[in-house]
Amino acid sequence: MVSVPRRLFTVVSAISLLLCMGWLLLWMMSIHRSDQFDTYDGSYHYHCLISSAGQLLIIYHDDSALQTMRTPSHPSTPWQHSSFPYAQHFLMGTGNWLNQHGFAFEWHEPVPVFAGNGFRSFSAPVGRETLLQFPDWVAALFFAVLPAGWLVAKRRRLKRRRIAENQCPTCGYDLRASKNRCPECGTPTASIPP
């Protein structure tokens, strides 16, 4: 019987594999066009994801200081998608090694306050903004780790089971009548631990 943690690991690995494949597709599409997903949650927070030129840019804008100024929040909007037929390169940072390879992190406080289709300036800007940029291959690699671990674990379980059942760990051939070597694939039986 399969244990619950093993089933959970299998399900999470399958979801991670789907995310990896989706990210690879997004990466390929971002070479020729830009995709933007954004939302304003109605509680003074703006979230934006931009995929372009093999890069992902994540923007988080916090206008919660407006609550103290009694300024009404922008109405809540669901995630919206915009697509542009060109790829735009986002270059942030100072030009160190990480920036040259597509990684960047910036945090700004204060910044102009977001107000729908543009920015509304106050005499003293009150918003905070965080920007994170990284290449799409990093996310694809991140999501590929669990499926790779699942494959390694499955291969090890299969090898242990075959050894316990006196089978060749390489091909699964029954080794009860063989003394030195697997007659099917040639694996030495002396190298198989008891």
Q: What labels describe this entry?
A:
194 residues, alpha+beta, six-stranded antiparallel beta sheet, two-stranded antiparallel sheet, 31% helix
Give the topology, please:
Elements: H1 4-30, E1 34-40, E2 45-52, E3 55-62, E4 77-84, H2 97-100, E5 104-111, E6 113-115, E7 118-120, E8 127-135, H3 136-164
Antiparallel strand pairs: 1-2, 1-4, 2-3, 3-8, 5-8, 6-7
Helix pairs in contact: 1-3
Structure description:
This protein has 194 residues and is α+β, with helices and mostly antiparallel strands. It has a domain at 31-135. The chain is 31% helix and 28% strand. It is built from three helices and eight strands; from the N terminus they run H-E-E-E-E-H-E-E-E-E-H. The chain has helices spanning 4-30, 97-100, 136-164; strands at 34-40, 45-52, 55-62, 77-84, 104-111, 113-115, 118-120, 127-135. The strands form two sheets. A six-stranded antiparallel sheet has the order 4-1-2-3-8-5. Strands 6-7 form a two-stranded antiparallel sheet. The longest helix has 29 residues, at 136-164. The relative contact order is 0.14.
